[in-house]
Amino acid sequence: MESIGVEEKGLNLEATELRLGLPGRDKIEKEIISSFNKNKRAAPKSAEDDGSEAKADTKHRDHEAAPAAKAQVIGWPPIRSYRKNNFAPKKAEAEYGNYVKVSMDGAPYLRKIDLKVYTGYKDLLQALENMFKLSIGVYSEREGYKGSEHAPTYEDKDGDWMLVGDVPWDMFMSSCKRLRIMKGSEARGLGCAV
Amino acid sequence: MDPVRKRTKDLSKSVDSAHLAPFPDEVLEKVLSLVKSHKDRSSVSLVCKDWYNADRWSRSKIFIGNCYSVSPEIVARRFPNIRSVTLKGKPRFSDFNLVPQNWGADIHSWLVVFAQVYPFLEELRLKRMVVSDESLEFLANSFPGFKVLSLLSCDGFSTDGLKAIATHCKNLTELDIQENGIDDLGGGWLSCFPETFVSLEVLNFASLNSDVTFDALERLVSRCKALRVLKVNKHISLEQIQKLLLRAPQLMEVGTGSFQQELVPRQFAELETAFGSCKNLHTLSGLWEASSVYLPVIYPACANLTYLNLSYATLQSDELSKLLPNCSNLRRLWVLDTVEDKGLEAVGSSCPLLEELRVFPADPFDQDMVHGVTESGFVAVSSGCRKLHYVLYFCRQMTNAAVATIVKNCPDFTHFRLCIMNPGQADYLTNDPMDEAFGAVVKTCTKLQRLAVSGLLTDKTFEYIGKYAKNLETLSVAFAGSSDRGMQSVMEGCPKLRKLEIRDCPFGNEALLSGLDKYESMRSLWMSACNLTMNGCRQLAKNMPRLNVEVIKDEESDDSEADKVYVYRSVVGPRRDAPPFVLTL
Hints:
The complex is a heterodimer. By secondary structure, chain A is α+β, with helices and mostly antiparallel strands. Chain A is built from 7 helices and 5 strands, in the order H-H-H-H-E-E-H-E-E-H-E-H. A 5-stranded mixed β-sheet of chain A has the order 2-1-5-3-4. Chain A is elongated, with a radius of gyration of 25 Å. In chain B, the strands form 2 sheets. Chain B has a 21-stranded mixed β-sheet, covered by helices on one side. A two-stranded parallel sheet of chain B has the order 5-7. In chain B, helix 2 (about 25-30) packs across helix 4 (about 50-60), helix 10 (about 240-245) packs parallel to helix 11 and helix 13 runs parallel beside helix 14 (about 340-350). Chain B has a domain at about 1-60: Up-down Bundle (Monooxygenase), CATH 1.20.1280.50. Chains A and B meet through helix 2, helix 3 and helix 4 of A and loops of B. Chain A: Belongs to the Aux/IAA family.
């Protein structure tokens, strides 16, 4: 039992560690295997174990298995590589939506939206207008969102703040890291021709 | 016309014996040649010397379940007239990446011997073997009468090897390439079949990834009038499959390409007609990216289908529910768990003749989303399909009560493979271990031959298995058991056990050694990530000289630990091609 407690501590640290990226990194993988190893190498129980002891174990196991379950074990579930490879690419696309944070100057908290559900800029801007109860106006290449108190901007892969609408939609989708709706004079500044 | 070798008549024998043989050897051989099953043939050969010899001379097909249990020389000496060879190599867990690369099971040394002894070899069926392009070329050039090549779950070759086969095997009737780890260097191999080549009956290249020249394929299909099985890969479009079906309406088994193509109504109608014109079609697979929009083109063929493989089509429950009422004749159905329980209810209500169901997970590593099938889907199928005897079921939750109901509905299970995907997961309603579920399976299903267990399991499960599973031949165990007692119960029971594969279980040396008397009657034992030590394995090897006890060493582990152990009987002793990381004790 003690060994399980020690593992619980170890696993919880891992589980609460802040990290970017999907679960299933190698380190966690090895943790899982070693956790099962440690479980096994604990003193063997007698054959007369009744259900209640197994239940207590279950609770322990469930508790420590919960964070553990979020990672992958080598060769488990037992599916042939061919079948796994057939789906992996498609799923990676479809399942994890393209969620980005949206901040609005002056708003107390941020929002999050899935860029994948929008068909283009018009759709997106409409949604932002609805979400934040404001009007953004129409985009023009020369003057940005002229006439509006607000300008939608985004941070791209390089860390630069860009005006929403300059690049083709697909390019925007893949390079947008977060959105920010600027207000007032700052907004007007971005819209001016350089 | 075929020069079959005959032994010289041993006349002195019949003169010396007190009475004449009951009937001439040739007649005995002829009668025995009608015995097809290799297990029966084995029994025949054990009756007496005459029958052993009759079997020897008349045997034309040989099945070798473990390529290391025997050598090609011994096979050649005993059976002079072999035309068809089936060979299996690596342990099954190599499919799940548990066996390192370069472990072995190379076909080449076998081919070299066969080329000398069986120049008239016609069929080679390999599973989990390593096959190089050189070997394929050697094969293509060594056996002029070669007809059947079937490669399942093999690796080591590329499409270049297939070029050699297509170019040189003038009498080829079957080319079946399934789920292999190969280098796909392009689809040019298909164009290597000469224009004069017309004998093909089976062509399966569904798992190859690159484009073949459609023109060449269409011409090939047109001129091979005896073609009955055609399974193309996902690069073949709907429009193209329609053309192929028109050329070969006699097809019995079809694997389509991708279903994702924009069709105008005329094309849709043409496809429907094409499927409808295949009157002999009983097996349908492929159907990549099939959606409700175009799936109905197969409806005209559905009434005759006995085997439908939808495991590459991410169908939802309503799509399956609309499709299945057309398929009342189904015996075998493979689906993805995207159909969910509701889809399985449709299976139960539409397919009363169903004998085999396989439900694969669309996203095996998905932890966050609650999708897939549960125990209720399985129960629904069992209540509508009373003839069910083969199931492979991947799910995320299960209960003891559900499994008890399932086997009560379907007591004739021969193959019960249940995979609860979260290792060591309990009955989600009661929090009990899943012992009683598998207890119910082995108690009720007296014909059970193959069992795969999962979920939270104590030694009790294995006590049940040892006590009740009298016909069990194959057992797969992962993340289960509490002590050596578990495995011991199985080794002491299960009289017909042939293959046992275990991973991540708390079974140690005592458990391993409890099977001392059993391993020679088994094909093999695999144990990985258990509690075995090198000393325990050495002890086994010392006591049982006719077993090969191989340990695959893991780089990071302790020297005394035996991480992966593979034990198998062999008449040829330790293998000579073992790589450095395989220690034979």
